[in-house]
Amino acid sequence: MRVRMTLSLPRQPSSTTRARHVLTTLLSLTDVSEDTRTNLAVLISEACANAVIHADPGGDVDITISIDDQVCLIEVGNRGRSPDNAKLDADLPAPLTIGGRGLPLIGALADTAAFVAGAPGQVLLRITKHLRQAAAPTC
């Protein structure tokens, strides 16, 4: 099976929820394990929340979700500046620090995650996650 969907959502907090619901619906068509679905929901939520917070005012959040039998690819893009020295494998901030956990969380949960070249003036985060299938029921 192969599924691909592209969305362009307004730069507002509710777009994060919408993107997560679309991903969840697409994953319901597969036999992906529940823990993989949960990780993917967190990944798209964190990526979209960062795009909503950091995008240029008036811009949209562009999301592409591609699912095949083995991999889910999520791309989240927005108009704005690429984060300076953004590290997806950085340590989490101090416990009482507000914010700053999204990119390290994405780095920890994804199989690969990186900012990649997009259109001029666009920030594009590409995330991949290998799909673990749910265990077959035992009789």
Number of strands: 5
Low-confidence stretches: none
Strand portion, in percent?
25-35%
Order of helices and strands: EHHEEHEE
Average pLDDT, all residues: 86
Q: What is the makeup of the main sheet? A: 5 strands, antiparallel
* Share of residues in helices: 25-40%
Q: Count of helices?
A: 3
- N-C termini distance: 26 Å
User: Structural class of the secondary elements?
Assistant: alpha+beta
Instruction: Compute the CA-based radius of gyration.
Output: 15 Å
Q: Tell me, what's the shape?
A: globular
**How are the strands ordered across the major sheet?**
1-2-3-5-4
Notes on the structure:
The mean pLDDT is 86. The protein has helices at residues 14-27, 34-54, 102-109, and strands at 3-10, 60-67, 71-79, 112-116, 122-130. 31% of the residues lie in helices and 28% in strands. It contains three helices and five strands, in the order E-H-H-E-E-H-E-E. 26% of the residues are buried.
